[in-house]
Structure formats: structure tokens, C-alpha cells
Amino acid sequence: MRDLYQSQRAMRAIRQTAMQRGVIAVLDIGTSKIACLVLRFDGPESIDKAEGISPMAGESAFRVIGAATTRSRGMRFGEIDTMNETERAIRTVVQAAQKMAQVRVDHVIATISGGEPRSYGLAGEIELDGEAVDEQDVARCLASCEVPDLGPGREVLHAQPVNFALDHRTGMNDPRGQVGQALSCDMHLLSVDSRVVENLMHCVKRCDLELAGIASSAYVAGKASLVEDEQELGAACIDMGGGTTSLSIFWRKHMIYADSVALGGDQVTSDISKGLQVPLAVAERLKTLHGGVVATSRDDRDMIELGGESGDWERDRRTVSRAELIGIMRPRVEEILEDVRVRLDAAGFDALPSRAIVLTGGGSSIPGLDRLAPRILGQQVRTSRPIRVAGLPERATGAAFAATVGLCLFAANPQDEFWDFEVPVDRGSARSLRMAVRWFKDNW
Fold this sequence. Notes:
CATH architecture of the largest domain: 2-Layer Sandwich
Distance between the termini: 33 Å
Membrane topology: Peripheral membrane protein
CATH superfamily of the largest domain: ATPase, nucleotide binding domain
Strand content: 25-35%
Number of domains: 3
CATH class of the largest domain: Alpha Beta
Keywords: Cell cycle, Cell division, Cell membrane, Membrane
Helix content: 25-40%
Shape: globular
Structural class: alpha+beta
GO cellular component, one term: cell division site
Main location: membrane
Number of strands: 18
Radius of gyration: 24 Å
InterPro entries: ATPase_NBD (IPR043129), Cell_div_FtsA (IPR020823), FtsA/MreB (IPR050696), SHS2_FtsA (IPR003494)
Number of helices: 13
Largest sheet: 5 strands, mixed
């Protein structure tokens, strides 16, 4: 974790430098699309009050000055599968966004949606001298958390303090400046496959860009889709993407759990292609224009022309009923929702006060999903679009851009993480001494 600590600190420094210059880009690298937004940080006076959009509390004011999207290439299940194709797609979308913004971009913040994320809850505690808590005390408290064995080939993506307790007072977001005798903390740690992180960093470097940060797509989608009360009382955000369905749980405005299901809209399209024996492009069009998951009595009579360009006139003129199309799509969507339900149960989601569930991402726009999802996930389910940000084009305001908008918020106001604090030099020796004392007590 020491190597990652240093690399994350370096990326934070790069991001601060880029924001001081006033321009940074966010790059949402998904399985079905790659989106790039160029942000300009000019201070609160740059926001057009006529739009009715103002920066959130504590956030840096920014405006989107460039936006572009392209079809993703070389990606599979949220991970880079073919490096050259992904590099070409990233270059294409970044150049288009730069052309719209009329400014050169050197630094980007990217997302990761694959990598088999795993969540851990850590706890640490230190004794104080009865003086006011300072940043060094917070750093020592975070460093006292015992990191579990993550297994080979795992990398820490997020390490965020979610709660502080000072003596008998708990539920504190920031204990600095307060006086007490003992400081304890709870920290959420999210690990992913290190190979996925290394491939992403290498791909961005090959595009002549400098990586200024990495974030989980589940985390940023939740920041953009959940309202303040939902983040406070406890809610889950389900980002239904093309190759993966990401899941995050927020409580007291912090992410406390994240996971993903290696299924998404691409699998639904593949089922349509195989079931109706049509190309993937035709299957995607059928899913978008005529798809659904809840059939009615009228759907048996609603005939859809498949179309195609095979050259066989009879084959290209085939028709199917909408009920048959729904019969192909519904089992796969049910499988995705049931897998999400299993992960929610394993995380103890039912113990939260609110238990609200928010669906976002491109897959959440399937007609009838708002009626099917409550039967599997629970009654408090709604679909969501990301919050508005200044300068965002209309075409980028849909649910498919939840992670992209969340990256903007992440860039403007990043949450404190373990690597934002200077870890004490004696951390390793202190831990060794504690282990030695514990061994001595257990054996003598």
C-alpha cells in the first residue's frame, strides 16, 4: 500500500496543479461509450446566474467548456481488452473535446468500472494528549487502521474515512480543532485488480496524457445521482452500464460499500442478436426503439420489422411481435437485478434507515424497468438523471452520463482520503512494536 500511497499523492499534486492552471478533463471509459468533458475552473463569478446553477457547498466553481463522446472500442466488462483500439478511441474523444473547448488538455481524471471491486471496513484508534486534534493526529489515526490481506494482484483504489469518534462523541466528519483524549476512526477501503489499474494508466500515458486521478465509476455515479437526503439516510445507487452494473451504498454522505456485476446492456443486446438471428447493430436498435421488460396485451399485436442488410429480401423483411422481444430481454434484466439484490443483502443494506434504491446509467432507461425493479429490489426504487452542472450540453444530461457528471463533482470537490494526509515516518516501527508486545502477552 506504500507504493500506491505515493502514486496517489503524486496524482493529487498533479490535479491541484492542473486546477490552478484552470483546465482539466474527465474521462469516463466505459464498455459501450467513452465520454470526455473539459472543465474550466474560473471561480464563482464565472457561473451564469441566469442558468440557475450555482456551485454546491464547499465545491470549486467550474464550467464544462468541451464535451465529446464516441463508441467504446477494445473494452470488455469495464476493462481494457485491446490496448490499441482503446487508445485510438480515447485519442478521438479527447481531440474532439479539445476542439470544442479550443484549449489543449494535458491532465485527465479517469474512471474504473471493472476490476472486481471489493469493500473493506477498517477501524483505528490513538491516544491524544488532551490538546486540540490537528492534521497530524488524524494522519496517525488513519495510519493505525490495520489493512487486511487484500490478496495477490490487488490495488487500493479508495481509502476514505467515513466516521470519526472523539471520546464519547461519534458521527464526526472532521475532528480537527476539537479537544479530547482518544480519537478513533472508521475507514472504507475499496480494492480492485491491479492489472486493470496498470492497463488504464499505461493506456492514458500512450495517449500523451497525464493521469491526475482515478475513481470508481460506482462512487462517482452515486455522487451525481443521489440527492443529499438519500446520501445522508442511506441509499444504494445502481449504475447499469454496457458491460458492468456497478453498485454503491452511501450513508451519512459517504460511500460505505461498492461492488459490480459483470453483466450489463451489452448482454441484453447479445441475447436479442442470438434470439432473433440479427446483427448486433440491428439488435441494439431494436432494444433502444422497441425494447421493454413488461408486456401488455397489446404487445402481441404490435409487430416490429427487423430490417437488415443481408441482401436476402425475405430475411430482411421479417417481423416479430414486441411481446417476443420483451420475452428475450426480461430474463437477462431479471438476472442482473437478482445479482444486485444478492450483493445488497450481503452488504446489510436492509439495516439502513432509508433503504432507497436509485437506478441510473444507460440501462435504466429500458421501458418498464421502474415496474420490474421494485418486485426484485424493494419498493423504494426510482430512476435518476445526474444533477445539472454549468455548461453541460443537453445530449450529455441523460442517465447514461451519471458517472461522467460524477467525475466533474469528484474533480471539483474530492473527498479526503488516506493519501491526503502525511503518514508519520514511525508508522512501520510503531506497528512492529505493537505486534511484538501482543506476541509477548500471548506467550508469557
